[in-house]
Amino acid sequence: MREKYLWLAIAVLVVLTLGQARFIHKHSLAATEDLEQQPLRPEIQKSFHAEKASDSRWEEFETWRDKIKGQLNLGTPLQERDFDVFFNDRFFSRDYNPFTEMEHIHRQMRDVFAGPKKTLFDNYWDKWFAQRLGIEEFKVDILRANRDVTLIIYVPGLIAKIADIDITNDRIKLSFSAKISSEEKSAGGIIKKESSQSYVKILPIPEEAAANTGKMEIDGERVKIKFDLKKSEK
């Protein structure tokens, strides 16, 4: 008899437990639906979109990384455009220091490869980096005044009418061409040759320069880019 009442008590407890679980689940769904119908607070919206943007950037990096890896595995040489397609205007316009981020990406990419492929990738990277960000072949000065700072790049043989500049908050993209003259001796005398070289250079803006204030001026073989100084924080 006792055993009969014991099993009856267990059955009642099971029914009560299932009923409570069903009640909790029903109200949880209702609460979730209410939250989904309510608009997100501005600060939550901002955080949500930032996470989405970060995911998008990571997916973009993964796609580019896999493409570069595939080319090297196939023995296909890397060209400037293979780097330019990722380090483009969108990359330099995002909400981080693009030059610091570029170095992080370089380190991540080196970890993808081993042995000869790592050395090969570094060689391609260094060549592209020198072509796009290297400015050693030109003399560069920075002149600071009370209200402005001027970046001056001396380009021998500069073709002024072709020079173009695009400035964002963090970088200067300078496109220009320069004439290259040379002489060769021959039986009939000296032969002068002239050709032109095109450049696309990406440079950081001076640290003390105010964003969106850069103005370009060409003076002979000098490219001058003048910025207002940042306003001092009080």
Sheet-strand content, in percent, reads 25-35%
The count of β-strands is: 7
The largest β sheet comes out as: 4 strands, antiparallel
SS-based structural class? Answer: alpha+beta
Q: Quickly count the helices.
A: 6
Order of helices and strands: HHHHHHEEEEEEE
Helical content (DSSP H or I, runs of 4+):
40-55%
| Shape designation | flat
Structural Rg:
31 Å
Characteristic key phrases:
6 helices; 4-stranded antiparallel beta sheet; disordered N terminus; 234 residues; flat; 3-stranded antiparallel beta sheet; alpha+beta
Give the SSE map:
Blueprint: H1 2-37, H2 42-74, H3 80-84, H4 89-92, H5 98-112, H6 116-132, E1 139-144, E2 148-154, E3 164-167, E4 171-186, E5 189-204, E6 215-219, E7 222-228
Helix pairs in contact: 5-6
Briefly, what is this?
The protein is of the alpha+beta class and 234 residues long.
If you had to describe this structure to a student in words, what would you say it looks like?
There is one protein chain. By secondary structure, the protein is of the alpha+beta class. The chain contains 6 helices and 7 strands; from the N terminus they run H-H-H-H-H-H-E-E-E-E-E-E-E. The protein has helices at 2-37, 42-74, 80-84, 89-92, 98-112, 116-132; strands at residues 139-144, 148-154, 164-167, 171-186, 189-204, 215-219, 222-228. The strands form 2 sheets. Strands 1-2-7-6 form a 4-stranded antiparallel β-sheet, with no helix packed on it. Strands 3-4-5 form a 3-stranded antiparallel β-sheet, with no helix packed on it. Helix 5 packs antiparallel against helix 6. The longest helix has 36 residues, at 2-37. The N and C termini lie far apart (87 Å).
